[in-house]
Design a protein that fits this description.
This protein has 2 domains: 245 residues, 4-Layer Sandwich (Glutamine Phosphoribosylpyrophosphate, subunit 1, domain 1); 179 residues, 3-Layer(aba) Sandwich (Rossmann fold). The protein contains 17 helices and 22 strands. It is an alpha+beta fold and 527 residues long. The strands form 5 sheets. The chain has a 7-stranded antiparallel sheet with strand order 3-2-4-1-10-9-11. The protein has a 6-stranded antiparallel sheet with strand order 5-6-7-8-12-13. It has a 5-stranded parallel sheet with strand order 17-16-20-21-22, sandwiched between helices.
Length: 527
């Protein structure tokens, strides 16, 4: 999961792209990057770290130009190396930069095509670099006589024919303008905003509407599945449908966890969706459990707050903030390894003992994925003095891999995989555990939105909206992206760095002077 931004303005773009990335920081905390078009020259800054850590004054001053791209990364494909920080750039044809949110499911096959048929070679394992090269090849093929808007739309059409999976993309073609497009299933979100200026309209494309609001852009619409937008320099924006067949099936986990509550995506308010999740969850709790002994409802910050407030209201139970969150610790779900997640839970959350002592508490979380956070939070609640700890998840059990850009690559890392609710309850240590029903989650999110034909809910039911997801692909994803595999990579990287330092120290060490033969001690005559 990542956050992307594309800006076409009449002033300096970099500062506003920076501000937009700050608003999307929750979507990726591993790395950040900005590229701008400085009168046909590509200016870039990419590095590991948060947005505020990556860009200093000297970097911002060097990022000249009125159009550009921005990206915050949470790695779910390729690796977490510096070389895979986005945006990517290719110099032929015309000079194209690209930022991407999602995952390609046919990346392995496409990479082979790139080498053998298109004669293009990739520097990284990132499917974003692969997407860039597919788009560049299609643009070269469709614009042999002249570079125009129609050629861009034809190139996007070619991308849709060749690429499978989830992708929301912004491209910058040097000297020409900005391009944005979304996969034919609309799995990853993307919105377009417009702002009037003295020199004419300016446009911003972003993963979430909250980035538009921050910069004073009016939300025009979502980029619909299969649709492309082109923003040429000095001209009005144009949009065109570029996919032969489309299906409006956004990822439901965006509304459960990833998106900010103040965002509007696919015309659905994230805040309102989470309120309705709380309503449905409270109804199920009342059907299945006696709640007369529940003293307090406590959310697990931050995402579950909205649902927890509604649960407390419906159950007529006190709502209390029982955990204080350390704002300087990142979101544990999107940390790159299980050991880091485990360490970060207690660093991130600290209980207010007075809210737990001697009480039966109902904890509400947005979801339970690996169970790491849930188990430790139940332990912390008991240590704080809770008499009984009940646990409610606003999402159904996560039992299956996600291949569209969420870090759920291996079934054996998911606590609900091949386990019953009772077994999960025992593993996290709760006195009772309840999950939202999938039908209730879907109805809570898709409230009177007739244009949405469904949702990608593959992590809950194992049904993948794009099709063509077979056991072979799932095994490859698990093999390449599992926590254990990434831990081994990091271990090898650390050992390699250590060995390199030792070798460098030996090379740089000054030659030792030859030892002087020791002389016998002088004997002092005593008289």
């Amino acid at each position: 999961m990542c956050g992307v931004v594309g800006l076409m303005s009449h002033g300096a773009a970099a500062a506003e792209i920076y501000d937009a990335l700050i608003m999307l920081q929750h979507r990726g905390q591993d790395a950040a990057g900005i590229m701008t078009d400085d009168e046909g020259m590509c200016r870039k800054r990419r590095a590991r770290g948060l947005v505020r850590e990556t860009f200093r004054t000297r970097h911002m001053q060097s990022l000249r130009g009125s159009a550009g791209l921005g990206h915050v990364r949470y790695p779910t494909a390729g690796s977490d190396k510096n070389s895979e920080t986005q945006p990517f750039f290719v110099n032929s044809p015309y000079g194209i930069a690209l930022a991407h949110n999602g995952n390609l499911t046919n990346a392995h096959e496409l990479a082979g095509e790139m080498r053998q048929r298109d004669r293009r070679y990739l520097n990284t394992d990132s499917d974003s670099e692969l997407l860039l090269n597919v788009f560049a090849h299609e643009l070269l093929r469709t614009s042999r006589r002249s570079m125009d808007i129609d050629a861009v739309f034809r190139a996007v059409r070619g991308v849709h024919k060749r690429c499978r999976g989830a992708y929301s993309v912004v491209c910058l073609i040097l000297g020409f303008g900005l391009v944005a497009f979304r996969d034919p299933y609309g799995i990853r979100p993307m919105v377009v905003g417009r702002r009037e200026s003295a020199k004419g309209p300016e446009y911003l494309v972003a993963s979430e509407s909250v980035a538009l609001q921050q910069l004073g852009f009016e939300l025009l619409q979502d980029v619909t599945p299969g649709e492309a937008w082109v923003f040429p320099y000095g001209e009005e924006a144009l949009t065109r449908q570029c996919a032969v067949r489309t299906q409006y099936t956004p990822c439901i986990f965006e509304y459960v966890y990833f998106a900010r509550p103040d965002s509007l995506m696919d015309k659905i308010s994230v805040h309102k969706a989470r309120l309705r999740m709380g309503e449905r969850l409270a109804e199920k709790i009342q059907r299945e459990h006696d709640t007369s002994d529940v003293d307090v409802v406590i959310p697990i910050p931050d995402t579950s707050r909205t649902s927890a407030m509604e649960v407390a209201s419906r159950l007529n139970v006190k709502y209390r903030e029982g955990f204080i969150k350390n704002r300087y610790i990142g979101r544990t779900f999107i940390m790159p390894g299980q050991d880091e997640r485990r360490r970060s839970v207690r660093q991130k959350l600290n209980p207010i003992n007075l809210e737990f002592r001697g009480k039966n508490v109902l904890l509400v979380d947005d979801s339970i994925v690996r169970g790491t956070t849930s188990r430790q939070i139940v332990e912390m609640s008991r240590e704080a003095g809770a008499r009984k700890v009940y646990f409610a998840s606003a999402a159904p059990p996560v039992r299956h891999q996600n291949v569209y850009g969420i870090d759920m690559p291996a079934p054996d890392e998911l606590i609900a995989s091949n386990r019953s609710v009772e077994e999960i309850q025992e593993r996290i240590g709760a006195d009772w555990l309840i999950y939202q029903d999938l039908g209730d989650l879907i109805s809570a999110v898709n409230f009177r939105r007739a244009e949405i034909t469904g949702f990608d809910v593959s992590c809950f039911n194992g049904e993948y909206v794009t099709g063509e997801v077979d056991r072979k692909l799932l095994l490859r994803v698990a093999r390449e992206r599992a926590d254990k595999v990434r831990a081994r990579r990091r271990s090898r990287k650390r050992k390699g760095k250590k060995a390199a330092k030792v070798a460098a120290a030996r090379t740089a060490a000054p030659a030792q002077p030859a030892k002087i033969a020791e002389l016998p001690a002088l004997e002092v005559e005593r008289g």
